[in-house]
Structure formats: C-alpha cells, structure tokens
Amino acid sequence: MSRSLLALVASATLAGTASAAANDLPYGERLAFSALRNGQEVGRHELSFKREGDRLTVSVAIDLIGRLLGIVVYRYSHRGQEIWQGDRIETLRTATDANGRKLAVRGRLEAERFVVERETGSNDQVSQQDQVRPGAAVEREAFPSDIFPSSHWNIRQVEARRLLNTQYGTLSTVRIERKSIERVRTRSGEIEATRYAYTGEVEKEQWFDARGRWVKTRFKASDGSTIEYLLQD
Known about the structure:
The chain has one helix spanning about 1-10, and strands spanning about 30-35, 40-50, 55-70, 70-85, 90-100, 100-110, 115-120, 140-145, 150, 160-165, 170-185, 190-200, 205-210, 215-220, 225-230. It has one domain (about 1-230). The radius of gyration is 17 Å and the shape is globular. About 5% of the residues lie in helices and about 60% in strands. It has 1 helix and 15 strands. It has a 15-stranded mixed beta sheet with strand order 8-7-6-5-4-3-2-1-15-14-13-12-11-10-9, with helices on one face.
C-alpha cells in the first residue's frame, strides 16, 4: 500500500489549449478532489485560488493515508504555494512529509531565470519560509523563466516538454499528447473533457474541460493498482 501511495504522491506533486493567466482563470476560489485507489478513497487533493489584479496565488494541500488491515501504515502531507504574475510563475514554496521523510522546495524568478533551492532526505522539520534550516543540505539550480510546475491545474502545462516537480524541485522530461473528448465522472454528475496522455518521466492521464479546468487525473501505481482523482465540486 505504501508503494502505491508513494507513486500517487510522485505523480501528484509532479493542458489545443486555453490560457490560465490570472485574468482569465477558469476556477472559482477552490478546487477539491478525492484520491481513489482501485475505487477506495485514500485522501484529498485541494487547491485554493486568490486573485489580485494580474497576480494569482495558488495554494495546494494534499493529505493521504494508507491502511493495512485497518492500521495506518503510511502518511503523506504536502503543502505548496505558487504566485503567478500574468502567465509566468514568480515564486514557489513547498513542504512535504512523505511518511517521515521531509522535503522542501523554494523557487523564485531572478533575472529572467527561475532559481530553485531544494532540501531533500531529512527527517527534521522543514520550513515553508524563505530561510534554509541550519545545517541542511541544499541544492540550487536555475531553470528557464517560463518553466511550468507539475501541480496539475494549469492547462497550458500540456504545451510543455519539461515540468518542474514541485515535490523534489527537479525537472521531468515529458511528452504530452491530446487524445479524445470523453465523459468524466464527478461527484455532481458527468461532464465532457479532453484527455491528455503524459509519457516519459511523467506517466499519467489528465482531463481538462472546455473551459480549461482540470477535472480528472488517472495513472497506474507501481503495484498495478489504478489511482484516480475524482472531482468533488
């Protein structure tokens, strides 16, 4: 079960298309999904959106729990914040607890490069602020300023060939193909959405509706089980 959830996490914290700039965002104030493994709920993935003119703040919260015979054997928590100016990300902060393993990523736009600092592998508490923990091992790397994070919601992501993994702060090479328009089940009924297939260092399927909203994700976990996100709104 824990390997399945770890695969879920890697994909989760890893879109013809519409713009998702702050002034034409296709979302309300929040977006929520149930995470299902072979049809059984294992957690939640929620986002909130705050607009201030051309500036957009996106907050991400993921909580997963794995159980075996009713006993909790795995816990995962991820918190993230992205600040966008128009169609370009300005800052990124994430903090992850993967069953006791702490990860942190901080990124900001600097002189036309997106500079990322990442802390990995520690069992100590990580900081979601801009300060690095004393004694922490930190890697620093600069990426193109137009990089897209792997946080699912932005449909313009499907035009990318590389995505910034928001859990690890590393780049993933990906090929994304537009497939078919399909009926997608949500909590309130069925909607039509376009399916996109991701292959390469990211393997999954995502669905976006006609407005450009992210409405579903599906992929295979390492044990062969099927992981799906079911839209709650």
